[in-house]
Specification:
Blueprint: H1 2-21, E1 38-41, H2 53-57, E2 81-83, E3 86-87, H3 94-99, E4 106-113, E5 125-131, E6 137-142, E7 145-147, E8 150-153, E9 157-165, E10 168-176, E11 179-190, E12 196-209, E13 211-219, E14 226-248, E15 252-254, E16 259-261, E17 267-288, E18 297-308, E19 311-319, E20 322-346, E21 352-375, E22 380-384, E23 391-409, E24 412-427, E25 433-451, E26 454-464, E27 475-477, E28 482-484, E29 494-507, E30 510-530, E31 534-555, E32 564-578, E33 585-586, E34 592-603, E35 609-620, E36 623-624, E37 628-633, E38 638-648, E39 651-658, E40 664-672, E41 681-690, E42 694-702
Parallel strand pairs: 2-5
Antiparallel strand pairs: 1-4, 2-3, 4-5, 6-9, 6-42, 7-8, 7-42, 9-10, 10-13, 11-12, 11-41, 12-14, 13-14, 14-17, 15-16, 17-18, 17-19, 18-20, 19-20, 20-21, 21-22, 21-23, 23-24, 24-25, 25-26, 26-29, 27-28, 29-30, 30-31, 31-32, 32-33, 32-34, 34-35, 35-38, 36-37, 37-40, 38-39, 39-42, 40-41
Length: 703
Amino acid sequence: MQYLTRVFRAGFCLTAITVLGYGQLSTAQDAQTPDTINSYTLEYFDQFTPRNALDMIARVPGFQLRSSENRRGLGQGGANILINGERISGKTNAEDQLARINAANVVRIDIVDGATLDIPGLLGRVANITTKNTGVSTTWQWRPQFRKNVKPNLLRGSVTVSGETGDLSYAATLRNTAFRFGNFGLEERFTPDGFVFETRDETARFSRDSPGISTSLTWKPKDGHVVNLNAEYNLFDLEIREISRRTAFSAHPNTVMGNTVMGDNNETLFLRTVDAWNASVGADYELPAGPKSLTGKLKIIAYYRFRENPAVSIFDQFTAGAQSAGSRFGQASQDGEAIVRTEYSLAPNQGKNWQLSLEGAFNFVDIASSLEILNPTTGDFFAVPVPGGTSRVEEQRGEFALTHSRALLPNWDVQITGGFEYSQISQTGDANQVRDFFRPKGLITTSYKPSDSLTIRTRIEREVGQLNFSDFISTLNLQDDLNNTGNSELVPNQAWVGSVEFDKNFGQGNTFNARFYGELISDLIDRIPVGIDGDAVGNIDNAKRYGVDFTATIKGDKWGFKGTQLDLRLDLRNSEVDDPLTGLSRRLNEDKRTRWDIEFRHDIPNTNWAYGGTLDQNVNAPSFRLDTISLETNTRPLATAFVEHKDIYGLKIRAGLRNLLDQTDNLVRQAFTTRRDLGQLEFTESRVRPFGVTFSLDVSGTF
């Protein structure tokens, strides 16, 4: 902890020195020199036989792709990807966009520092993909999966057509992101003093089909004018099924509570189905505007998204072959988002840039809930009210920001953003109200290169979080018999975020990166008590989170192991918040504690063969609710292995095995008689569910 504190102090001092020096320099040079660029041409990727730009990005040493689709509004920066020097339009998923670019159309990929690009909010390492026109091309991929006791997943794949004609380039993708998962195993329930009073033999199956089509168009009618259009439509068919066969043991005394604990002898079925669709369209137009001497640019961006998401949950209980209980919970849900954003940029001098941005957004969610309970005597279901389960929530938001970027020295860049947002949140139904919010926002980032191979980046930012409007509306979890009370008083969380990053390039593809960070969070969104027996998502006054992330890439060529690459990652994090029930300090709900992964790949020289594998493991904090504490764990790392041939009659075929160490899905849940601060431990359940080895194929080609 002391080491982290020293690093943070050093980073903040560096930022402060940069800001103080900002007004002391009358001239600055362009920091984007050849030394700040790492270029990877098409020849570098030949050994991997990539099919699209996404395959190529995955093989760039030390680079990690960051998407932008989940950020608040359109905001600044976005994904750390540029295509021919331009940002990806709107909220388009970066992976989808890269998958539409045929590898044969890529000239090179340049890895540059975001602070040198005069693009507000674009931080860290950025990949600029330069493309060319090679005519109409088609790439396709089929990715079936097979696992014991689970139906084969045969419908996973995609096909992309792309091309260019005159000033217009286009791409269209048809895909299905299907999966077939499942696990099975025994769950045991214990009294507080360790007696097993019930076992549950459980089987769970998860399946999804999500066919969709996406398109992108780029039109450059004349010099400096660029028009982008992206559209997407997806279907979403999800089914979750769990069968539990329960066996009660002889009654045991609960010595803690002084009563007798009995288990159940019955069978239960839980089924959840979702039959949804969503569509989105985004467009932007960039053109020169203002005096030519100031290199003014105006960009207008528009985005709209709509989703219809009906879901039904069914829970049935059978005792001695007859149905003894049952419930049906349904939610008809619609949500959407509309955004308009304008950005005006000026570059009065080389290495200096100003940008003014205005953004307006409208978000909504509209949910109607219903609940029916079985009358076991008559066999009929009767309707039961769901308080707070039917409502519409809307947000209207406006944002203003002014950003200035400049090179203080040839090896030192700074970017400063100041602004604010105003929002109005309204809700109908049981909680009929309107609330207004004003939030200041700001960002200071620096990038300093003491040598050609080392970059030190610092960041201080005032962030405003994004609300999930579904948390305003009550819902039920029939699978775990949990109520989620809606909270109409939710407010967005805010945070002061600071980080210091050290990025070292040792040459020949060998890299090392270390990022130290900390967050001071106010209005943390977590689980809070509502009344005596309500449990809802709500705000907690203060929390903090801090940690360090390490990544490294080691290429074996330097040491005589030609064609080998080892990618390493280690994340360490701690967090603190006062539990709203007990007042004791704990970690944030389900927050990351550690994550590590190792990836090895060997492309055998002078052959079309490659092989490799991965090891990874995540450890998260427990989940704290009103009357339960749950912890999901995996006892072993997840291990995979693959072998690949890059040219079998023009096809690249990869065969893989997943879960070679027999990792299991484990859960330990403590249930209390009432609220954790008032009641006593009633029982503990421990679940271990193996899911076996998955065999997968990845067949891809072009034509």
